[in-house]
Each structure stands twice: as structure tokens, then as C-alpha cells.
Design brief:
Blueprint: E1 68-72, E2 75-82, E3 97-98, E4 107-108, E5 128-131, H1 150-156, E6 162-165, E7 168-170, E8 174-176, E9 181-183, E10 190-192, E11 204-206, E12 211-219, E13 225-227, E14 232-244, E15 246-250, E16 255-267, E17 276-281, E18 285-296, E19 299-304, E20 309-318, E21 327-332, E22 336-345, E23 350-355, E24 360-369, E25 381-386, E26 390-393, E27 396-399, E28 404-409, E29 412-421, E30 434-439, E31 442-451, E32 456-461, E33 464-473, E34 486-491, E35 495-504, E36 509-514, E37 519-528, E38 544-549, E39 553-562, E40 567-572, E41 577-586, E42 599-604, E43 608-617, E44 622-627, E45 632-641, E46 660-665, E47 669-678, E48 683-687, E49 692-701, E50 705-709, E51 721-726, E52 730-733
Parallel strand pairs: 5-6, 6-9, 7-10, 8-11, 9-12, 10-12, 11-13, 12-14, 13-15, 14-16, 15-17, 16-18, 17-19, 18-20, 19-21, 20-22, 21-23, 22-24, 23-25, 24-26, 24-27, 25-28, 26-29, 27-29, 28-30, 29-31, 30-32, 31-33, 32-34, 33-35, 34-36, 35-37, 36-38, 37-39, 38-40, 39-41, 40-42, 41-43, 42-44, 43-45, ...
Antiparallel strand pairs: 1-2, 3-4
């Protein structure tokens, strides 16, 4: 479990070892007539083999123009679209330049500076009023005799006029309340920069309709530009830099369309308030194409309140100024944001935060990465969707974020064609680093690759999750204590449905489901190569393929569990159920630290198992173990093949390596129909300590001992209903053989 949650557990096991079963020099008591359970020539029905799972499809991302297709170093079929050149995002040190997603180098914002004072592409016809910085008062607005101030030019301009600004800096604030165009010579040389400080008055205030601002810079210790109630404005090739409170604000129902807009270095005002790049609030509407926001203190883009909306294409939000806040994009309290071809990187606390009832985010071709923690070392999530908000995201790359890559809490998330990888631990304590964290959420995730995250790849607590075409690979241990590393962990009533998935090379447990009301439905799933973590007080941290415990329920169809350690499948505790069809459990290895265990399937402590078409091959110590009062197993079309001794047989457990195909112990019940149990190192089937076993139709063959029954006066016909015992060293061994002590619990 993640820190603060319930701990996972690998329950004690109870397997009878029977080294003497294979000792031909000291034969045990053999019941005469235990020779096959059928007429001469009887051939039992062979169990049907399980159907293999279908492989998941990788994320499907067609890269936008200018973006590069980059395969993941560990999975070449997982291809992310990279918006920058191989050298990374270009650093535009000249404030008149910017770079947008898909561009390989910084480029000039707007037109080059003209040789003369005014822009060279001013309209040839219509009303053009000229204003030149530094000129004496008394001009008439012509190119030969410009006005000296913007205010004078606006006063003389008719509706629809162009007010042409020269090169130079204009020390004034500007109010635009009529349909006019403010047209600078170029962003590098034309600036509106009031010298006096103000926490209230923006450099430019727009309150009229059909206002256009282009080819200039706004700067000064003021808020940048505000589009107010009923205003309708466009901005083209504008740089807003070194302002405070906000760079651009659209409020009160105002509307803004912006192209080639750059907002840089926005600080809190003299009262310490805000420091936001772009703000859309109180019903404001903004549509932007090629927008760059960098080095904002509080947030890059903030859209808040019902009826407020923002749509952006080719957007970059980067480099939070102060890591105490410095969010990338905040969508709050019923607002709506749509993003296309957007990069959010090197921000703080959260790359994108979507919060509140009715709040909606829609994003395509999205990159969120390198989100930092705050100054206290906390937070740093990539994408956060919370408290009744909803988000539809993909294709997307979410990488190298602190704490969590994608988080949905009491919210709705649709995530498609997404790569979430390399999440980092929380700097303050070294915990977390989760790939996808869903808590009481409703989520649909499709064609998702979760790779090299920490603690847990996919964490689901409560809620309902539908996952289609999912890969969770290489989840790393928690940085702080080197524990966990779980592929999928779900609990507290979560309902998770998985169609086509692979869980590969995770740590401790590949898939863990726990708690009453928790249900996992899997179709076409492979759980492979779960690795141990060598911590937990010097004990080996398991390496279990799938663990269903504390009354959770798993329903399976076409599931492969292979190359895991300690146990392939563990079903533990009263109320836990594991049921389904077409399950293959192969090559379960012994525990790394001491060479013990290696069970294919273990059911214990009152749990139950009901499976059809099952193959358990190359387990250690036991293929299928049902143990403990109240534990029950029902299997149909079961093959348990080549069960091996546990690895410690060469060192600490010499002569007691085990190797039982099918075992029922400690008051458990087991019924199996259409079976084959062959090539076990020790016993084909084993029954001890008041357990019950019924076998129907099948073959138990090529084992040193066919059946080891350690219960006096057990009705052996219950093992012989259409079951043929053949080619065993002895068909029956009824001697009481030593049983090992239960295994330790493992908890982080």
C-alpha cells in the first residue's frame, strides 16, 4: 500500500513436504488396488488447455507537424511525440523572440523592426493616426507630425482607425473603449511602459468592442492588460513582460482572441497578490493560438468560474518563477479549458490542476513534465483532476513529475493514448512517485503505458475504472524505503475492469486487490516477471504475480501469470474469491533471499478459488495449494505440470525440497475435474490435516508418488472417480510426513 493505506500481505502458507515420498528404499504403506479408478483400457478425458491472452495495443499517437516521434528506451513500440528538438526546448534570451511547440528554434514575435519609426505594413487606406514617443505636443497625427502621446492619438482617432505607434517607450497607461487598432513598429522597439507603480491600473485596459493590439510590448510595475466586461479584443504579436499581478486578464464577459502572444516574468504586486500569466474569470472567454507563458509566480494560466473558458493551440507554459506555487494551468470552479498541442513543463505544485464541480478540461497532443515540488518539498503532480471536475486527455506524454503523474480524486477522467512515465518521489520524504493515482474516481483509460514510475504504477482506491490496452512496466520501489513497486494496487471498494493488459517487471506484487467490495475483472491480461524488493527488515519482499486479499473478488478470462517469485497467484482471507476461465501460471520462482516457496497458486485463510481451463507449470514446492479452514478450491480442466523442488534444496532445506502438484491442507476443501498432474518432483497430489479433496476424471502420472494422503481412514475413492494413476513411483503413500512451519507475513 501507499504510505497511509492498508499494507499488503503475503499470507502464511501450509504445504506438506514429503521428501520420503520419493525414497524407494523405505516404502510407505500402500493401499492395494489403488491402480487407476476405471476399467482396463480406460482413458480419461484430457483437460482443455487455457486460451492465451490477446496482447494490448500501444498508445497511438500521430505526431503533429514539427514534433518528433521518439520510442521509449525500454519499449520501442511505445512512441511519444516530442515537441522540441533533441537538444531540448530552445531558451529564448531575447524578449522579442519565442518558441512554440513544434518549432526547433526561437523566432521573432511579429514583424522585424522597420528602418523608419513606424511599421512598414500599416494599411495604405483608412484612418491611420500616428504617435511618436518623445515628440513635442501639438502634432496632428500625420506621419510627418505625429501626436506625442497615445491618449492624444486615441482622442483624435475615429472608430475603426489604426493608431500607429513608433519605436520607443510610451510612459502612460492606455484605455481602449472604442473599436480601434493599436499598432506598434515591432515588439523589440515599441513598448508601453508606465514608470509609476500601480497595483490596480493595468498598462492597457480594454472596455470596447473590436479592439486590436499588435506588434508591441507591454511592461512596467502594473498589471499587464485587462479585457473587461463587454469588451471584444484581438492581440497579435504582443509581448507582455516584467509586470505584476497578471499578464493578461479577461474578465466580466470580455472576449479575447490572441495569436503569437508571449507573457514573461509576472510577479506579485506590492501587496503580494497573485503573479499569474493569463487569467480568465467571471465569464471571460479567450481563444489563443501560439501562446507562450513563462516565469509566472502563482500560475501560468488560470481559468476560473462558470461560463469562463479558454481554448489554446500551440501553447507552452514553462518555468515557474517561484516554487512555492508556480502552477502551470489551473482550471477551477466550473470553468472550461481546451488545449491542443500544448506543453506544460518546469512548473511547480501541479502542471495542470482541474478542480470543482462542472469544471472541464479537454486536451489533445499534450505534454506535462518536470513539475517540481514547492519550497517545502511537497506536491509536484503532473495532471490533477479533483472534486467533481472532469477531464478528457490524449494523446499525451506525462513524465518526470514529482509525487504523481496523473491524479483523479472524486472526479471523472478519460485518458487515451497516453504515456505516463518516470514519476519521481516527493522530495520532502522520498515517498510516492505514482504513475496514475485514482481515488473515488470514475475513469476510462485506453491505450496507456505506465513505465518506470515509483511505489505504484496504477493506484485505484474506490471508484470505477475501465482500462483497455494497458501496460504497467518496471515500477520502481519507493525511494524512501525501497518497498512496494506494485504494478496495479486497488482497494477500498474499487471496481476495476481491465481488457488487454500487461504488468511486467514490477516489484513486490504485480497486481494487488484488497478490501470488501473491491472487484477486479480481467480479460486478456499477462502478469510477468514481478521482482522482489530486498528490504522489509532483511526479508525478501515477495515478487508475487497477483494477490487477491481481504475479501476482494477477482474475475478472470484469459490470464497468464509467469516468471514471478514466491507465488504466482495468492488468494487470501475470508470472502476473497478468485474465479474465471483460461488461466496459465508458469515458471514461478522461489523467494530470492532464502530459496523458499515458488507456489503457482495459493489459496488460504478462508479464501476461495473457482477456475476452468487452468494450467500450472514449473512451480516450486507446490503447483496449487489450498490451505486453511474455510479455504476452498474448485477447478475444471486443470493441468499441473513439472512442479519442482524449492531452490533451497541445495542449501538450507536439503532433503525437504518438496515439489507437490496439487495440495489441500489444514481443513481446506478442493474439488478438481478433468485433471492432469504430472512430473512433480515429489507428489502428484497431497492431502493432510483434516482437508478434503475430490478428484474426477483425469490422470496423475509420472510422479515419484501419485497421492500422499496423511488423513487416517480417508475414503480413497474420492480421489479415484475416473482418475487414472499411471507411471508413478508409487501410486499411494499414506505415511505421515513432516510439514514445514508457516511462512512469515510480508508487510512494508
Amino acid at each position: 500500500m501507499l504510505r497511509g493505506g492498508a499494507a499488503f500481505v503475503v499470507l502464511p502458507t501450509m504445504l506438506a513436504t514429503a521428501c520420503a515420498c520419493g525414497d524407494d528404499t523405505a516404502p510407505a504403506r500402500v493401499d492395494a488396488g489403488f491402480d487407476g479408478g476405471g476399467d482396463a483400457g480406460f482413458e480419461p478425458i484430457e483437460p482443455e488447455p487455457p486460451l492465451p491472452p490477446e496482447a494490448p495495443a500501444p498508445p497511438d499517437w500521430e505526431c503533429p507537424a514539427g514534433w518528433r516521434a521518439v520510442p521509449d528506451p525500454d519499449a520501442v513500440d511505445v512512441v511519444a511525440c516530442e515537441p522540441w528538438p533533441e537538444s531540448g526546448r530552445p531558451d529564448c534570451v531575447d524578449d522579442s523572440e519565442a518558441v512554440f511547440p513544434g518549432q526547433s528554434a526561437c523566432a521573432l514575435v511579429g514583424t522585424p523592426c522597420p528602418a523608419g519609426d513606424f511599421a512598414e505594413d500599416l494599411p495604405a487606406a483608412g484612418d491611420v493616426v500616428h504617435v511618436r514617443a518623445g515628440d513635442p505636443p501639438g502634432g496632428d497625427g500625420s506621419a510627418a507630425a505625429p501626436f506625442a502621446t497615445i491618449a492624444d492619438g486615441l482622442a483624435a482617432a475615429s472608430d475603426g482607425a489604426v493608431v500607429a505607434l513608433s519605436k520607443g517607450s510610451f510612459d502612460e497607461v492606455v484605455a481602449l473603449d472604442r473599436p480601434v487598432t493599436l499598432w506598434g513598429a515591432c515588439v523589440a522597439a515599441t513598448s508601453i511602459a508606465p514608470a509609476a507603480d500601480s497595483d490596480i491600473d493595468p498598462v492597457v485596459a480594454v472596455s470596447g468592442a473590436d479592439v486590436e493590439i499588435r506588434n508591441l510590448t507591454l511592461t512596467g510595475r502594473h498589471p499587464g492588460i485587462e479585457i473587461r466586461a463587454a469588451a471584444d479584443a484581438t492581440m497579435d504579436a504582443v509581448v507582455v513582460r516584467d509586470v505584476w499581478s497578471y499578464g493578461v486578464q479577461v474578465t466580466g464577459g470580455g472576449r479575447l482572441g490572441a495569436t503569437d502572444l508571449v507573457v514573461r516574468r509576472v510577479d506579485p504586486d506590492s501587496r503580494g497578490a497573485d503573479g499569474r500569466g493569463v487569467v480568465v474569470t467571471l465569464g471571460g472567454v479567450m481563444v489563443a493560438s501560439r501562446l507562450s507563458v513563462s516565469e509566472a509566480t502563482a500560475s501560468g494560466i488560470r481559468v476560473v468560474d462558470p461560463w469562463s473558458s479558454f481554448e489554446g493551440t500551440d501553447v507552452v507554459v514553462a518555468r515557474a518563477r517561484v516554487p512555492v506555487a508556480g502552477l502551470g494551468v489551473s482550471v477551477l470552479l466550473g470553468a472550461a479549458v481546451t488545449l491542443h498541442r500544448t506543453v506544460v513543463e518546469e512548473t511547480a505544485v501541479a502542471g495542470i490542476n482541474v478542480h470543482g464541480d462542472g469544471t472541464v478540461l479537454t486536451a489533445t497532443d499534450l505534454v506535462v513534465r518536470d513539475t517540481r515540488a514547492n519550497s517545502e518539498g511537497a506536491f509536484g503532480n503532473g495532471l490533477v483532476v479533483q472534486e467533481l471536475a472532469s477531464a478528457s486527455v490524449g494523446p499525451a506524454l506525462v513524465e518526470r513529475n514529482a509525487v504523481v503523474g496523473v491524479n483523479a480524486l472524486r472526479a471523472t477522467l478519460v485518458l487515451t493514448d497516453a504515456i505516463v512515465r518516470d514519476s519521481l518521489a516527493q522530495p520532502s520524504d522520498g515517498f510516492y512517485g505514482v504513475g496514475l493515482d485514482l481515488a473515488s474516481a470514475t475513469a476510462r483509460i485506453e491505450r496507456i503505458w505506465l513505465g518506470r514510475n515509483r511505489s505504484v504504477g496504477l493506484h485505484a482506491i474506490g471508484g470505477t475504472i475501465d482500462a483497455v490496452d494497458l501496460v504497467v512496466a518496471g515500477t520502481l520501489p519507493t525511494e524512501a524505503d525501497q518497498g512496494l513497486g506494485i504494478g496495479l494496487e486497488m482497494g477500498d471498494g474499487a471496481a476495476v475492469t481491465v481488457l488487454r493488459a500487461v504488468f511486467d517487471a514490477n516489484r513486490t506484487i504485480g497486481v494487488s486487490a484488497y478490501g470488501p467490495g473491491t472487484s477486479l475483472t480481467c480479460d486478456d491480461v499477462a502478469i510477468r516477471g514481478t521482482l522482489p524488493t530486498l528490504v522489509l527488515g532483511g526479508r525478501d519482499g515477495a515478487g508475487v504475480g497477483m494477490q487477491i486479499w481481504q475479501a476482494a473478488i477477482a474475475t478472470l478470462r484469459r490470464v497468464e501469470v509467469s516468471g514471478n517469485r514466491t507465488m504466482g497467484v495468492a488468494v487470501l482471507d475470508p470472502g476473497s474469491r478468485y474465479e474465471g476461465t483460461d488461466v496459465a501460471v508458469t515458471d514461478t520462482l522461489s523467494r530470492l533471499l532464502d530459496g523458499d516457496y515458488g507456489y503457482g497458486i495459493q489459496v488460504g485463510a478462508g479464501a476461495s478459488l473457482d477456475l476452468e481451463r487452468v494450467q500450472v507449470r514449473s512451480s516450486r514446492r507446490a503447483g496449487v495449494l489450498i490451505g486453511g479452514t474455510g479455504s476452498a478450491g474448485t477447478l475444471r480442466d486443470l493441468a499441473v505440470l513439472s512442479t519442482l523442488e524449492r531452490d533451497c534444496v541445495l542449501t538450507t532445506c536439503k532433503g525437504e525440497g518438496g515439489g507437490t502438484g496439487l495440495a489441500a491442507l489444514e481443513g481446506a476443501t478442493l474439488e478438481a475435474t478433468r485433471i492432469r498432474v504430472s512430473d512433480s518432483a515429489l507428489c502428484g497430489v497431497q492431502l493432510a490435516r483434516e482437508a478434503q479433496m475430490d478428484l474426477h476424471q483425469g490422470r496423475i502420472s509420472e510422479n515419484p508418488v501419485g497421492a500422499n494422503v496423511q488423513i487416517a481412514d480417508y475414503d480413497l475413492s474420492r480421489l479415484r472417480d475416473g482418475v487414472v494413476f499411471s507411471d508413478n513411483g508409487r501410486d499411494l503413500d499414506a505415511e505421515a510426513l513432516p510439514l514445514p512451519e508457516p511462512a512469515e507475513r510480508v508487510s512494508p
